[in-house]
Design a protein that fits this description.
Blueprint: H1 16-19, H2 27-36, E1 38-39, H3 42-45, H4 50-58, H5 64-82, E2 87-88, H6 103-111, H7 119-124, H8 127-137, H9 145-152
Antiparallel strand pairs: 1-2
Helix pairs in contact: 2-5, 6-8, 8-9
């Protein structure tokens, strides 16, 4: 049986510029997408109505059954709007579950001249916070949210 850490639905303050409309995929949904190993295109997300997006944020996705239900619902939505199935993630590297700060997060703190995150600070963050920092440190993400996330998580006052 698979089980990922149960986390409450939470929207971060650094996501505040889009959470009201859900025009972008919030971290809580991205976490659940990774749990299901589904790669959802932003263009597909944009086709969902607000209630569908909100339900994807609120639905549990922790146990095998919840993951299956979540994946089925997501597949139904994508099919409804695109007549295609979403693609699957080939490799899932859940660096956020490790006890050490991932290299990509360390590199991003250096790029922004932010304080180094210690292993102790890293392990004190919850899974969703660690997930967010890993995702924000990867290429293709708006860099401005990385220092905002560090400040929100109490890891830096200003970078």
């Amino acid at each position: 049986m698979t089980s990922v850490p149960a986390i409450e639905t939470r929207f971060f303050a650094f996501e505040s510029d889009f959470v009201d409309s859900l025009r972008c995929i919030p971290m809580i949904v991205r976490y659940k997408l990774d749990t299901c190993r589904v790669k959802l295109q932003l263009s597909d997300w944009a086709k969902f109505n607000y209630d569908e997006k909100d339900l994807l944020a609120e639905m549990p996705c922790h146990t095998d059954l919840e993951i299956e239900i979540y994946t089925d619902y997501l597949n139904e939505l994508v099919w409804k709007y695109t007549n295609t199935a979403p693609s699957l993630l080939k490799n899932l590297d859940p660096a956020w579950v490790n006890a050490h700060v991932p290299a990509e997060v360390h590199e991003r703190t250096q790029e922004w001249n932010c304080p180094v995150i210690s292993a102790s600070q890293w392990t004190q963050l919850n899974v969703l916070e660690r997930f967010a920092l890993v995702k924000l440190s990867r290429s293709g993400h708006e860099g401005r949210n990385f220092p905002r996330a560090l400040a929100e998580f109490g890891l830096a006052t200003a970078c």
